[in-house]
């Protein structure tokens, strides 16, 4: 395997380890474009949201809604400091957004795995979330509670979203 194939495989394996069936959905990959921009990341986020909307576990909560348009997805994202990415990715994977005392997975395992994902994308990666850091609100991407984090180094991307209904 070439080194980029190894990196992609490790990135996908690590992101898969952060998923929880029916709650935390993940997507990781390599862009087809040689110089991707925000539109390519937004397309990958929409693909992940489509997976959530099509999951039988969520159809009763989400139908007849559809994933937001690309502009709405992009408009909901806030750029975050790279140094906070691992912590937020850990939280999305391990802490229930409605009931914070309920763990979705072991916090220490999630933290190690999230740090690995951030390391794989590297220190020059950019990260976004749908959390508005100025006011603490969340720019929802679904009709239910959701929390999203997405990162990219310009070649690879990693996205996680947790959905919950009260």
H-E string = HEHHHEHHEEE
Calculate the mean pLDDT score and round it.
93
Largest sheet: 5 strands, antiparallel
Beta-strand residue percentage: 15-25%
| CA(first)-CA(last) distance | 45 Å
Number of helices: 6
Question: pLDDT below 50 for ≥5 consecutive residues: which ranges?
Answer: none
Radius of gyration: 15 Å
Strand order of the largest sheet: 1-5-4-3-2
What class, by secondary structure content? alpha+beta
User: What's the total count of β strands?
Assistant: 5
Task: Tell me the overall shape.
Answer: globular
Helix content: 40-55%
Task: Using brief descriptors, characterize the structure shown.
alpha+beta; single chain; 166 residues; 45% helix; globular; 5-stranded antiparallel β-sheet
């Amino acid at each position: 395997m070439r080194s980029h194939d190894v990196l992609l495989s490790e990135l996908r394996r690590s992101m898969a380890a952060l998923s929880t069936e029916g709650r935390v959905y993940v997507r990781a990959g390599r862009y087809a474009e040689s110089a991707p921009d925000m539109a390519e990341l937004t397309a990958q986020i929409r693909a992940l949201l489509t997976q959530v909307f099509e999951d039988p576990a969520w159809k009763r909560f989400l139908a007849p809604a559809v994933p937001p348009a690309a502009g709405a997805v992009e408009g909901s994202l806030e750029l975050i400091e790279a140094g906070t990415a691992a912590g937020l990715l850990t939280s999305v994977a391990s802490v229930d957004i409605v009931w914070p005392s309920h763990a979705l997975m072991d916090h220490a395992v999630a933290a190690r795995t999230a740090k690995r994902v951030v390391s794989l994308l590297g220190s020059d990666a950019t990260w976004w979330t749908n959390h508005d850091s100025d006011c603490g609100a969340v720019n929802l991407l679904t009709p239910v509670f959701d929390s999203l984090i997405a990162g990219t180094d310009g070649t690879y991307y990693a996205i996680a979203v947790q959905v919950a209904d009260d």
